[in-house]
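Reopening this ticket.

The earlier resolution said the output was attached, but the attachment link was broken on my side. Pasting everything inline this time so it's all in one place.
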Amino acid sequence: MRRIRAGETAAERELVERFSRGIRVILRSVAPDAAVGDDLHQETLRVLLERVRAGEVRSPEQLPAFVASLARNLATRHYQRARKVVADSTLRLARLEDQTPDPVERISQAEEVELVRQVLDELPVERDRDLLRRYYLGQESKERIQADHGLTSLQFNRVLHRARKRFQELWVARQSARSRHL
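Inline output:
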């Protein structure tokens, strides 16, 4: 790292060669699209070199963990921005459509709302029910819910992920049971 800060391009090449394969492995697990993975790989290497040159990474033994974290964080930010763009585009298109649902749609929506409530009530863990209701239905801030449950941001994300997974499992079971009865 001292050699990189001193401007040695050979040291930069060594760093890239040493971590490039590991970065690709990490990104393959979170970025199914190969082109996106390649872009994120390059971005990870670029940011890594910038931070090492700037002296932001001081301890060589922390470098592997830093690189892994950097790759995951860049991938997470990429997909969050991509989801936001898609959501924004969808919202703009939705505003152009006729907003009034026909009677059949209204009945279907009401049934779906009731089914969501039933599935939420069936979740075996109270914290799952509370998080999902408050975060998705109540639109409460992540920070407020975290504080109420004594969770860090990382813990909140993990708990929310597991709660959504449990909800989805119940939802799929309910939907397949419903379709068998029709």
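Reporter confirms the inline version is readable. The two ends are 66 Å apart (CA to CA). The helical segments are 2-5, 9-30, 34-53, 63-96, 103-122, 126-137, 142-149, 153-181.
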